[in-house]
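input
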Amino acid sequence: MSTLAPRPLTPSLRRLRALARAELTLLGRNRGVVATALLAPLALPFSVRPALDQLDLEKQGISVGAAMFTAAVGFAFLFAVYSALVNAYVARREELVLKRLRTGELTDIEILAGTALPALALGLAQALVLGVGCAVLLHAGAPRAPYLTLLGLVSGLVLSAALAALTASVTRTVESGQVTGLPLVFVSMTGSGIMFPTEVMPEKLASVCELLPLSPAIRLVRAGWTGHMSAHEALGALATALAWTVPAVFAVRRWFRWEPRR
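output
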């Protein structure tokens, strides 16, 4: 009786798996980065709870649970993925790890993707755990359009990784990464609907904030929970996300620094 044997991984996937495993080990040794990546998305949403209670969210069809889940996912984008990867890319570059990897079989895309995989997996796992937690503890219920939330998660994770690589290319040291990454973190927290939904902003201000890099992903994540997004609006959000992602990926391929910045 014959059995179906699992297909062997392609050489590219084997290289990615090996690099991701090594990067996960290095990530686990950096306790500061791990603590920030794990605790910030869990703790910071509770810091915005008093402000959310002062807003008329029900008028916009948004529950407190959905708003807090969206905030938690946004903080995961910023801290578990973006900030952690800026640190990882700069540290590996300055330690000549990236330079040595380029002398082997790995392609540039494989090096960047393999380095990002642990952070992306962490961000996705946090989103799933937080989603279950909000549904159970905050009585937010299940997502009404989960495919929108999934689209928001994927677009937000990919863009966060691309922006991290782009930020790393202009960052000289690991320590200075906390400064170079601060503008995106601050603007996204206040303007992309993470700390409070853009629906409660003045209309003109909201229309501007919706064009920020992470705004489309945040809107899709929240809309998946509330179900309040038309097909036209969803396509517009995806188009805006792509309008940021494609140039970011192109810029990384064009200007990413593989040599230490002296």
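quick obs: The two ends are 63 Å apart (CA to CA).
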